[in-house]
Design brief:
Blueprint: H1 2-8, H2 14-46, H3 60-87, H4 90-122, H5 130-151, H6 155-169, H7 172-182, E1 192-193, E2 197-198, H8 202-234, H9 239-248
Antiparallel strand pairs: 1-2
Length: 249
């Protein structure tokens, strides 16, 4: 039992996580390039034209996976926040910090592509719809988290403040997801349901899932790369970092 516990927490140390992340980054980046390339090809050249929305609907193959990622990444950050507060692990806060810019990027991408989809469908770039407004709040939460950590000089205090913000803001995720059910909104309902399946053609659904997996692989690769930089910055006074720098020189 003790050995299993040691193995389980082995990579919770920045010193052991750093080389592991370095080995994983090329694999996940290669997977991301392949999946996103396949997804874009299917989106533009294989998926059929929608009989209602025409060719303009193809933007959903980027919009929907980006919206999924904007919510999933925030939940993962909230998970790391809990781990950091409960176990007081340094790596947890580093992972939240590493994920935040990518989460903000996907949220912005979801809002931007949604505006391009909404203009021909609704006749306007933006409406204060419940789904759109709550997604915009999510973007502000990401920006607020990044700004908060950057504004506090004490790293540990900044980590705790950021973790509290993440946990308070997590209530916005179910609001985003269920907004089209709770309120009468312009935003269309979900085309994919766990209980009712999908109303989309199989090629459309498969293309969307491939893009989502590609975005996941990209997120992991970029977050691991950013985490390595954060580790070096925060652990610069550690013996293992000094030894690593000596080896590189």
């Amino acid at each position: 039992m003790n050995n299993a516990s040691i193995n389980w927490f082995k990579y919770s140390s920045p010193a052991t996580f750093y080389p592991l992340a370095g080995r994983l980054i090329p694999w996940f980046m290669a997977i991301a390039v392949i999946l996103i390339g396949i997804g874009l090809y299917l989106s533009f050249f294989v998926a059929p034209t929608d009989y209602k929305q025409g060719e303009g609907y193809r933007i959903i193959f980027v919009h929907v996976p980006a919206a999924w990622m904007s919510m999933f990444i925030y939940l993962i950050m909230a998970f790391w926040a809990v781990m950091g507060l409960v176990f007081n692990t340094r790596l947890s806060a580093m992972m939240s910090q590493a994920l935040a810019p990518t989460g903000a990027m996907f949220t912005f991408l979801a809002l931007w592509t949604g505006a391009f989809w909404g203009k021909p469908m609704w006749g306007t770039w933006w409406v204060w719809d419940a789904r759109l407004t709550s997604e915009l709040i999510l973007f502000f939460l990401y920006i607020g988290f990044i700004a908060l950590q950057g504004a506090i000089d004490d790293t540990r205090r900044g980590d705790r403040a950021g973790a509290i913000l993440l946990l308070v803001g997590v209530v916005n995720i179910p609001i985003i997801y269920f907004s089209v059910k709770w309120w009468n909104t312009l935003h269309q309902g979900a085309s994919i349901s766990v209980t009712q399946g999908s109303s989309m053609a199989s090629i459309m659904l498969n293309t969307m899932l491939i893009m989502a997996l590609g975005f996941w692989a990209y997120t992991i690769a970029v977050a691991l790369s950013r985490a390595r930089s954060i580790i070096l910055e925060r652990e610069m006074d550690s013996q293992w970092v000094r030894e690593l720098q000596e080896i590189r020189q």
